[in-house]
């Protein structure tokens, strides 16, 4: 028989049947079911095994607070562990597996842990695995890790896509129960922009789970009507299946919308989930309340659940959790369960009420002043034993027990910014305190208003108050007529009788005894209690268990519960898939990519690309027959030295500096002087940080009296521009200077080598003379090429060769590269990438980011004299600190390998006579094989380097156990006099 | 794209390295690359910023406040900072927009060519905010026609111009990011389109 526990009524669509499997066995349910309700309908109570003792466990709740019924949902790459069956919406073909068991759910080998529970108490790990010390890493930890963990990962890449987005509203209403609906209706009718979010797929909250009337119709019908109205309003966004998971600074809320979790697999392009950032000017938290347990011996058997959940399964999902049902309560609410189940024809064998004088709500056996003291059953509940008020015991045969220890307002989101809830004696629970997240109001059960009438009214009032703070006037909704019963509760946290285990935290297997042990061993602070026992540290954050643990601790310490304290709730409210946090930023889309103007052309050439920050740059251009990158790079390097090469240098930052005070501004920015730089000239500039350390270098070209183009290194384009803006806006706002980035506006290519001028002369329009006399080294100008296209030409050299950088508007960059290749064919022009660029500059002794690494000063770089003493510039004063100018300080020098080996960059330097250990005398910052010199060379910083030319030093690479010898030489390996670049 | 180059030897390419502008339609929405937009930045110098503002205003028939896009017959202008504007025009007609502006404004302003500093996309179609809300944190409902905001979009610095609310927006991004921006926007278009389809 299928669905033998299905009752009449409910909010399921019986016209359709959905097939699903659990642990390989087939079952049926209906649209509207959750996995948990469908399993219960099929009389499946055993749904999982507990974390530590592998105890058989069944579902205890009907919502996202569920600690027990965790399953692995789906198979293959989409398998997701720790999915709560209570919120997994049933779909056709759903496949779920139980977890944390082997070989099967009914027989779990690690259930043996339960036999040793006396040894596996709180603090077990800390006490047991103390010695021998060496065993921890090699023996204990691997065994514990193997046994630990809930569920398993598919070990495959997640095939789904995830989305992110941003929403704004006047009022965010969190939770669509009676309070949330009343708040949303009130605000929506006033015209405010409203977002109503609820984690459930059916809105209405407890109205769908209770039997009660609002304005003469069923609560569920009233909710449906309210939702229909909200749906029809353009100023309202209804978000079903959306969990508001965190309240963050600046009135920002995180919310996860599940777009496709109710399908077997998302349709093409449908993002599985969307992580929303909601900017809410005001919010009303209507998250409801969570029912709490009463701990007693063996209160964890499958079939023992919350009384409210039992009622919800019956009323909303038309499911009896068992054919014979008992209730254990300390408040009136438990009686509702009995009343509703009786009405649905379920056999209620008894209501056990710990209060001496408790009223019955219907026709069922009532045991007042009684307590459940134990349960029977192995893989499922078979009965409960109770202690009557008269002292006698009685055994009730039943397959389900509903427990109600009262309700805890769901204050999680009120605590996300360190808000502390406050104790309310009337409901014996915490309610939101005064320090709420900015703009947040709390209504309904979340505020301790447990009757439907009070929830509706507080929703209305909160919305009116929230909108009033925005200057919006909202007319209060006439409060619908609804149940306004009292909530009569006498706290009972656990049943003292019996020595068996009384479970508090069902997911982490924490018992009353564990809390008492923590107290006994001195872990009395609530934070210590939490960490020592792991109470509330599971995926459910102790939604059903924390208060029980606090109550036990309070009893032990003799303090009240509020004096004992509360733990802090943190986002996310419920677990979030890592993929949702990543959103679209996955794989190669993890970050944006910038492409150079010659990218398409370089791809055609088969270039190998390298990431330089966000840029993709051509690293080298392999040709047929070249089997190793070094062959390619050597060829490209030699081609530049012998004829001409072209390299895309667009990535270097370009900052347009204009204004009457442009020169004075650069004079302040750079350590060396710029005020006298003539129009039509470039100058190398060294920029210091305020603390005197080198910040960046580059060139500035003066295109007009009031117009410069500054270049920066690729890596520092953004930071340097930001620094310049800071100086302009904050340090010298009186200067008449304007800055703007033009990095992307111009395609810029280095044309380097003895034939560079000859090649360019074929492109530059004849009216522009670029001969050595007319356009000497460090010249610059605005010219035209190829018959009138505006261009900029800079005679600057990074390679040490006769070289230019030519720039055209970026859209012509691709064509210019092709033209350079075509016109350069007669010179055997060679495109070169960043590797050859690096070799060329090391050969020339030019510093880059490897040398300007945030630790080095102008003196270290051998540029001490560039820091002008005739003017003020940023960093100049602090660059004169003793520590940065010690005569025996570091100096940039060159190194030649003496033993034929490569010199690894990063190696440390030691005097030949000293053992290569301990503090070194410096390090290699850049290294390369120089095809020009036929040997490995390097740049590096060496103490007193300038005085040690010719000395042999040890180059130690202890990471790889390498040690080489090298000779200290000038950093200028080629053309130290600069004749080539001036040719 | 028509070749605006004055030279037959070098032809222009789009930000995607193509000869024609990129155009993608998904659901009711269209993303169009607009290489036909010329751009120049104008920053008033200290002497007389008001006169620069007035001169620019005269091109679009009214003052241009920060965060506002003013649309004229030949030019669109939006404010990017205090006393700083971006001017847009038809690239096929005014590739030398920066030079024209400099000629007119002289020493009153610093003018910089930005034709290729940025790539301009237009994203349009009914209810297009459903796409944009997945990309930018702007409160789109509070962005009326003719407004401009500088924003982050998938880690990229963009300018968003509202030409018609919930209907037509320009997105400007540094040209080198064109492919990444295109990927981000078309991905969001796909998401929004499939989510708009009843399941």
UniProtKB/TrEMBL annotation, chain A:
Residues 499-584 form the SoxA A3 domain. GO terms for molecular function: sarcosine oxidase activity. One of its GO terms (biological process) is tetrahydrofolate metabolic process. Residues 599-871 form the GCVT N-terminal domain. SUPFAM superfamilies: Aminomethyltransferase beta-barrel domain, FAD/NAD(P)-binding domain, Folate-binding domain. It comes from the Bacteria. Keywords: Oxidoreductase. InterPro entries: 2Fe-2S-bd_N, BFD-like_2Fe2S-bd_dom_sf, FAD/NAD-bd_sf, GcvT/YgfZ/DmdA, GcvT/YgfZ_C, GcvT_C, GCVT_N, Sarcosine_oxidase_asu. Residues 891-975 form the Aminomethyltransferase C-terminal domain. Belongs to the GcvT family. This is Sarcosine oxidase subunit alpha.
TrEMBL record, chain B:
Gene3D superfamilies: Probable tRNA modification gtpase trme, domain 1. InterPro entries: TrmE/GcvT-like. It comes from the Bacteria. This is Sarcosine oxidase subunit gamma. It comes from Tritonibacter scottomollicae.
């Amino acid at each position: 028989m299928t669905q033998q526990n299905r009752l009449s009524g409910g909010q399921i669509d019986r016209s359709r049947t959905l097939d699903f499997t659990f642990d390989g066995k087939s079952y049926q349910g209906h649209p509207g079911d959750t996995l948990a309700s469908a399993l219960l309908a099929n009389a499946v109570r055993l749904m999982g095994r507990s974390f530590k003792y592998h105890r058989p466990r069944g579902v205890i709740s009907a919502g996202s607070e569920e600690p027990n019924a965790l399953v692995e949902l789906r198979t293959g790459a989409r398998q997701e562990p720790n999915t709560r069956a209570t919120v997994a919406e049933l779909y056709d073909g759903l496949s779920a597996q139980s977890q944390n068991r082997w070989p099967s759910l009914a027989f779990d080998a690690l259930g043996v842990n339960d036999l040793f529970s006396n040894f596996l108490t709180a603090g077990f790990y800390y006490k047991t695995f103390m010695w021998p010390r060496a065993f921890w890493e090699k023996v204990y930890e691997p065994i514990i890790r193997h046994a630990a963990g809930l569920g398993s990962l598919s070990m495959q890449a997640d095939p789904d896509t995830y989305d992110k987005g941003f929403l704004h509203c006047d009022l965010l209403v969190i939770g669509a129960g009676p309070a949330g609906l009343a708040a949303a209706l009130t605000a929506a009718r006033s015209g405010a922009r409203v977002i109503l979010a609820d984690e459930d797929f059916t809105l209405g909250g407890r109205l769908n789970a209770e039997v009660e009337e609002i304005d003469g119709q069923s609560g569920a019908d009233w909710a449906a009507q309210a939702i229909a109205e909200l749906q029809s309003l353009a100023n309202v966004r209804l978000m079903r299946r959306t969990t508001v998971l965190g309240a963050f600074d600046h009135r920002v809320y995180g919310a996860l919308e599940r777009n496709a979790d109710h399908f077997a697999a998302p349709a093409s392009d449908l993002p599985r989930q969307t992580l929303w950032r909601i900017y809410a000017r005001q919010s009303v938290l209507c998250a409801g309340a969570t029912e709490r347990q009463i701990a007693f011996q063996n209160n964890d058997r499958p079939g023992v659940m919350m009384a409210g959940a039992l009622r919800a399964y019956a009323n909303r999902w038309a499911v009896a959790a068992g054919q014979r049902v008992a209730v254990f309560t300390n408040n009136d609410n438990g009686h509702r369960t009995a009343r509703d189940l009786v009405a649905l024809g379920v056999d209620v064998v008894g209501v056990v009420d710990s209060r001496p004088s408790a009223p019955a709500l219907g026709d069922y056996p009532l045991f007042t002043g009684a307590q459940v003291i134990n349960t029977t059953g192995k893989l499922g509940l078979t009965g409960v034993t109770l202690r009557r008020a008269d002292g006698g015991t009685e055994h009730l045969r039943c397959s389900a027990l509903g427990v109600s220890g009262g309700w805890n307002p769901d204050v999680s989101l009120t605590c996300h910014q360190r808000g502390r809830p406050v104790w309310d004696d009337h409901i014996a629970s915490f309610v939101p305190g005064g320090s709420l997240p900015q703009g947040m109001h709390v209504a309904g059960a979340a505020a301790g208003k447990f009757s439907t009438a009070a929830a509706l009214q507080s929703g209305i009032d909160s919305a009116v108050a929230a909108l009033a703070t925005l200057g919006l006037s909202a007319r209060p909704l006439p409060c619908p007529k609804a149940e306004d019963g009292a909530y009569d509760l006498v706290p009972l946290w656990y049943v003292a009788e019996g020595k068996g285990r009384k479970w508090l935290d069902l997911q982490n297997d924490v018992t009353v005894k564990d809390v008492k042990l923590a107290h006994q061993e001195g872990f009395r602070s609530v934070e210590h209690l939490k960490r020592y026992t792991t109470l509330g540290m599971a995926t459910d954050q102790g939604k059903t268990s924390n208060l029980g643990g606090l109550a036990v601790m309070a009893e032990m310490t003799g303090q009240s519960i509020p004096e004992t304290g509360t733990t802090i709730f943190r986002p996310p409210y419920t677990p979030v898939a890592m993929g949702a946090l990543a959103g679209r930023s996955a794989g190669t889309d993890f970050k944006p990519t910038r492409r150079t103007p010659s990218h398409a052309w370089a791809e055609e050439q088969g270039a190998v690309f390298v990431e330089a920050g966000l840029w993709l740059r051509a690293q080298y251009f392999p040709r047929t027959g070249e089997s190793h990158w070094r062959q390619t790079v050597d060829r490209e390097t030699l081609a530049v030295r012998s004829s001409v090469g072209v390299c895309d240098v667009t990535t270097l930052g370009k900052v347009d500096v204009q204004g009457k005070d442009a020169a004075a501004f650069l004079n302040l920015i750079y350590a060396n002087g710029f005020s006298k730089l003539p129009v039509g000239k470039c100058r190398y500039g060294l920029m210091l940080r305020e603390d005197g350390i080198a910040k960046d270098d580059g060139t500035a070209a003066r295109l007009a009296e009031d117009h410069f183009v500054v270049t920066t290194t690729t890596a520092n384009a953004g930071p340097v521009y930001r620094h310049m803006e800071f100086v302009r806006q904050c340090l010298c706002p009186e200067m008449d200077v304007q800055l703007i980035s033009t990095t992307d506006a111009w395609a810029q290519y280095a044309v380097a080598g003895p034939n560079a001028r000859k090649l360019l002369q074929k492109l530059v329009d004849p009216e522009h003379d670029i001969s050595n006399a007319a356009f000497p080294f460090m010249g610059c100008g605005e010219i035209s090429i190829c018959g009138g296209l505006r261009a900029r030409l800079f005679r600057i050299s990074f390679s040490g060769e006769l070289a230019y950088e030519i720039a055209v508007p970026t859209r012509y960059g691709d064509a210019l590269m092709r033209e350079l290749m075509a016109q350069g064919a007669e010179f055997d022009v060679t495109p070169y990438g960043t590797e050859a660029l690096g070799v060329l500059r090391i050969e020339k002794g030019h510093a880059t980011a490897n040398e300007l690494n945030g630790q080095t000063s102008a003196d270290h770089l051998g540029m001490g004299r560039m820091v002008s003493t005739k003017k003020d510039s940023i960093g100049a004063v602090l660059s004169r600190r003793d520590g940065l100018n010690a005569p025996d300080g570091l100096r940039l020098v060159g190194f030649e390998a003496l033993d034929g080996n490569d010199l690894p960059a990063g190696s440390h330097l030691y005097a030949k006579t000293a053992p290569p250990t301990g503090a070194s005398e410096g390090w290699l910052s850049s290294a390369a094989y120089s095809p020009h010199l036929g040997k490995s060379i390097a740049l590096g910083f060496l103490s007193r380097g300038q005085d040690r030319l010719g000395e042999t030093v040890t180059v130690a690479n202890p990471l790889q156990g390498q040690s080489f010898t090298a000779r200290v030489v000038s950093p200028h390996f080629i053309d130290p006099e600069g004749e080539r670049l001036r040719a | 794209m028509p070749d605006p180059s004055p030279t037959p030897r070098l032809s222009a390419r789009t930000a995607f390295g193509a000869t024609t502008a990129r155009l993608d339609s998904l659901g009711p929405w269209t993303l169009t690359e607009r290489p036909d937009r010329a751009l120049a930045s104008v920053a008033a110098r200290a002497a007389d910023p008001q006169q620069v503002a007035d001169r620019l205003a005269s091109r679009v028939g009214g003052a241009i406040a920060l965060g506002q896009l003013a649309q004229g017959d030949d030019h669109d202008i939006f404010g990017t900072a205090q006393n700083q504007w971006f001017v847009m025009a038809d690239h096929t007609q005014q590739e030398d927009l920066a030079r024209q502006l400099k000629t007119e404004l002289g020493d009153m302003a610093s003018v910089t060519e930005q034709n290729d500093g940025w790539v301009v996309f237009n994203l349009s179609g009914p209810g297009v905010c459903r796409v944009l809300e997945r990309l930018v944190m702007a409160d789109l409902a509070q962005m009326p026609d003719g407004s401009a905001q500088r924003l982050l979009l998938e880690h990229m610095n963009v300018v968003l111009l509202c030409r018609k609310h919930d209907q037509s927006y320009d997105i400007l991004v540094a040209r080198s990011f064109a492919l990444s921006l295109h990927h981000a926007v078309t991905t969001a278009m796909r998401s929004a389109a499939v989510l708009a389809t009843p399941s």
